[in-house]
Amino acid sequence: MRTLGLDVGTKTVGVAVSDELGWTAQGLKTLKINEDKNEFGFSELGSIIKEYSVGKIVVGLPKNMNGSIGPRGQACQKYGAELGEMYDLPVILWDERLTTMAAERLLIEADVSRSKRKKVIDKMAAVMILQGYLDSQS
Question: Model's pTM, two decimal places?
Answer without folding.
Answer: 0.88
